[in-house]
Amino acid sequence: MKRLLLATTIAAVTALTTVACGGTAEQTATPSTSTASATSSDDTATDAPGPTGIPDGMGSGAADGVFPRTVGHFGGSTEIPAEPKKIVVIATGQLDAALTLGVVPTGVAYGDGAALVPDYISFSFPQYADRMSQFVDVGNRQEVDIEAIAAIEPDLILANKAGSEDIYSTLSTIAPTVLTEGTGVNWKQDFLLLADALGRTEQAQSFIDTFTSDAAALGDSVAGSGAPTVSFVRFTADRARVFGIPSFAGYIAWDAGLARPESQQFDKTSQDFSEEEIQLANADWVFVSSQDAGADSSAASYTTNPLWTGMSAATENHIVRVDDDPWYLNAGPTAATIVLDGLKNALQS
Question: Interior CA angle at 319 toward 251 and 316, to 5°?
Fold first, then answer.
């Protein structure tokens, strides 16, 4: 199966050097090695590029809706005495995750160069428009406003280890605080852990099971000798990157059994590439976002380069422009659905 082939490739290919990126934690780290305590569909923790469930020893083990509960997480262990009503979300994708579960936070942090409420969130959850307009801005997720968080008097704070480990003790003096791991390849695990803190684990697991089934159906629909390869590319103001199998979009493609070009079968989240290396971005289909598309941006320079316009994906009109927020910035469940829908729309057209 293509899934097993991709998993074998991850283990076999020598790691390529990556340059750490600023501001978007989910694009910088290697995948978690945590053992999953729950799995979806036929995935296993050893085969998948990222964890499929809450790691052993974490979570609460409590039934949905039962409080108090004590949740083991990436910062330690936290008792949540009652169902939380005033919630602060700091980490990438946690606003997405909470809203997917029908929980509207009170305080929200934003990412570098991103809005407090990304457009895809507004579009996906119009039923919460009035309440989202009243979100309390608690600052940039890399440097949150502690005073603003305290003023909310929250009864739960959600953050991730990748961005908030250093302030975990401070946050914990304000309210019970739960740390997910962070990074896009850990999205399923982090969604389930966040859901546990909210008392909605079964709801989150049902979402993941349906998502995994839908992804597999996409792969089955395009399987065969002509099965397409897919490439993931992101431009920021001065950088160009391709994304590997253990990335947010890469994990979604893996769930669908989609093949990746040889140039992107590395075991890091992403790799920078120069204009001389544009061919590394090529595949049957290329899904590309641009955080900055100004005249002096990397996107403008690369995409007008003859090496780019001469790629087979370009000449066949198989380059798909995608929304930067859900594809490369917000590793949440609704973002994952948007990525999967984008793959479906292109590959099944």
Answer: 125
d(CA 160, CA 158): 7
Q: Is 47 helix (H, G, I), strand (E, B) or coil?
A: coil
- Cα(253)–Cα(102) distance, integer angstroms: 27
Among 139, 167, 141, 168, smallest CA distance to 151 is for: 139
- 78's tokens: 């936290």
The C-alpha atoms of residue 343 and residue 348 are separated, in whole angstroms, by: 8
Backbone angles phi, psi at 93, to 5 degrees: 85, -10
Residues 6+ apart with CB under 8 A from 221: 347, 348
Cβ-in-10-Å burial (0-12, 13-18, 19+) of 136 comes to middle
Q: Are strands 136-140 and 143-144 parallel, antiparallel or unpaired?
A: antiparallel
Which tens digits make up the pLDDT trace of 239-260?
A: 999 999 999 999 999 999 999 9
Q: Quote the pTM value.
A: 0.87
- The answer to whether the peptide bond before residue 68 is cis (omega within 30 degrees of 0) is yes
Show the tokens assigned to 8.
């074998």
